[in-house]
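User: Can you help me understand a structure? I only have the sequence.
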Amino acid sequence: MIGELEFEKPVKELRSKIHELKEFTKTTDVDLTNEIDKLEARLEKLEKDIYNNMQPWDRVQLARHPERPTTLDYIGELFTQFIEVHGDRYFGDDEAIVGGIARYHGIPVTVIGHQRGKDTKENIRRNFGMPHPEGYRKALRLMKQAEKFNRPIICFIDTKGAYPGKAAEERGQSEAIAKNLFEMAGLTVPVICIVIGEGGSGGALALGVGNYIHMLENSTYSVISPEGAASILWKDASLAKKAAETMKITAPDLKKLGVIDEIIPEVKGGAHLNIKEQARSMDLTLKESLGRLLKLDPTELVTHRYEKFKKIGQYEKNNDFVGIK
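Assistant: Let's start by predicting it. Here is the structure, written out as tokens:
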């Protein structure tokens, strides 16, 4: 089955059994209501046990789910009158990043996000959501345009990382990412970032310097993939599960560390199961965050962003131990 996750197998098997019994009841005179009720109660308990006690590696798997909603999926649910803008005015158009102008509850906004594909053909076209420099320069062009016309900026983060190929390096990948970090820090309009899947390395951070950074419950945000970290630390990529637990890359961990502001709850089983319900949950957090930021003037917005990032990774001394506050 496409996208089936190991920890979800018991749930899917039980759901399938309940579905079979219901279909059998419809086509015969046998009443299995009591058996179905017992199985549904068992299913509810099983789902609670699994989804309330998810391990970091389980969340990594959900963040990578092939059917997980993408930036364009959420744009269709959350915004109206979206007009996509193409090209960086230097080299070309990178389809791994999408962006444009839209309305959010009647307010003109600029929306930018990483975009991966839903199948092999689209993934190849969008380079599996790994942007080239022109993608980041397109994003920056849209951000500066938003600043010029006083439009809030909303960024969706969902990438394994920036494309590490030769062509990207030749066109200035590192410089493009660094320029985005520098320019985003000083934008005089509200900037809200939401991690909707994988947030990998500088490729994610290039869209992640915001006044607020929120994460979907089963997303990840990290300087490197668990497989990459395992290869460096233990010379064995198969220890990715151990690395995921050590790295503190999940939303609950990052909330404790002060890296993100809010965790957006996901529908039971993952955002891919009900995008409309998931979008409603995102809408509540997004609307509240934007409402707070719209009350600040340009100077206050820059200061707010500066203070937020200054607090991340603060150190405090406790006897002889120095660690992250």
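Now, to help you interpret it: The domain at 65-311 is CATH 3.90.226.10 (2-enoyl-CoA Hydratase; Chain A, domain 1). The CA atoms of residues 187 and 302 lie 7 Å apart. Let me know which part you'd like to focus on.
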